[in-house]
Amino acid sequence: MWTAPQAEAEAILQLPEAEFMAELERRYGPQMGRLKRLTPPALFPVQLMQCDRYVLPRLALVGDAAHSCHPVGGQGLNMGIRDAAALAEVLTAAYQHGENLGSLPVLRRYERWRRWENWIILSFTDVLTRTFSNQIGPIVVLRRLGLWSLNRVPLLRHLALRLMTGRLGRVPQVARVGQQV
Ligand SMILES: Cc1cc2nc3c(=O)[nH]c(=O)nc-3n(C[C@H](O)[C@H](O)[C@H](O)COP(=O)(O)OP(=O)(O)OC[C@H]3O[C@@H](n4cnc5c(N)ncnc54)[C@H](O)[C@@H]3O)c2cc1C
Questions:
Q1: Looking at the whole model, is its pTM more than 0.85?
Q2: How much distance in Å is there from the Cα of 29 to the middle of ligand 1?
Q3: Residue 57 Cα, ligand 1 centroid: separation in angstroms?
Q4: Which sequence spans correspond to the domains of the chain?
Q5: Which of 10, 85, 165, 168 is the most exposed place for a label (fewest CB within 10 A)?
Q6: Atom of ligand 1 minimally distant from the CA of 62
Q7: What span, in angstroms and rounded, lies between the C-alpha atoms of 15 and 13?
Q8: Residues with CB under 6 A from ligand 1
Q9: Short-list 85, 92, 127, CA closest to 106
């Protein structure tokens, strides 16, 4: 994975293979050893994406297969881990009640739990990305107001912290171990 602004990424994609690999090795450093290109490089945006459905009979999407966002908030992996924990919890409960684990009603419980909560974090991260990568006057004012409010209003700061650490909404049982707040 190599992230760069759009114009730079497009230029990188046009590099001849030898130059591309030399630049990649220069940026990664020697710890990866000699890198070998197996397929041509592909370009895709790091932005908010979410599947309309997380589940079908005998199928459940978790992590980046279900959603992705800009890495600025450092949330992708965290959301994926909470998806996995939630799915495990739903399936465990279904098993204990003798239900069919691959059935849509069972898997929909996981979707209902996670899709809405992920959507809130994805939207929050998306707003952060858009406002902080923008120099349009009113947006800069809004950004400053937002930061000022976070600084001055403890409740807002508390809510933002809980949201970004996955403690807002329904927390999977395994994530509650050792939880302080
Ligand atoms: C630059 C950057 C920085 C980030 N920083 C953070 C951060 O600070 N904190 C955070 O929480 N998140 C961060 N993220 C997001 C995080 O990396 C992802 O959300 C997370 O790795 C998703 O995990 P995953 O297991 O769902 O998917 P992936 O990590 O994409 O794993 C999927 C795996 O499946 C394999 N695969 C794909 N297709 C097939 C196939 N057909 N057969 C077999 N295997 C296959 C892939 O090779 C890959 O190994 C960042 C992302 C980027 C791009």
A1: no
A2: 21
A3: 24
A4: 1-44, 49-172
A5: 10
A6: 26
A7: 6
A8: 1, 3, 46, 63-65, 71, 74-78, 80
A9: 92
Q: Whose CA is nearest to atom 3 of ligand 1?
A: 71
Query: What CATH number should be reported for the domain whose range is 49-172?
Result: 3.50.50.60
Per-residue burial over 92-125, b if 16 or more Cβ lie within 10 Å, else e, is eebeeeeeeeeeeebbbbbbebbbebbeebbebb
Pairing status of strand 49-50 against strand 55-56: unpaired
For residue 38, pLDDT over 60 is answered with yes
94-103 long-range contacts, CB within 8 A, separation 24+ = 102/57, 102/58, 103/57
Q: pLDDT tens for residues 79-104?
A: 999 999 999 999 999 999 999 999 99
Cα separation of 147 and 153, whole Å? 10
Per-residue pLDDT band at 177 (split at 50, 70, 90): low
Query: Encoding tokens for residue 155?
Result: 């409740």
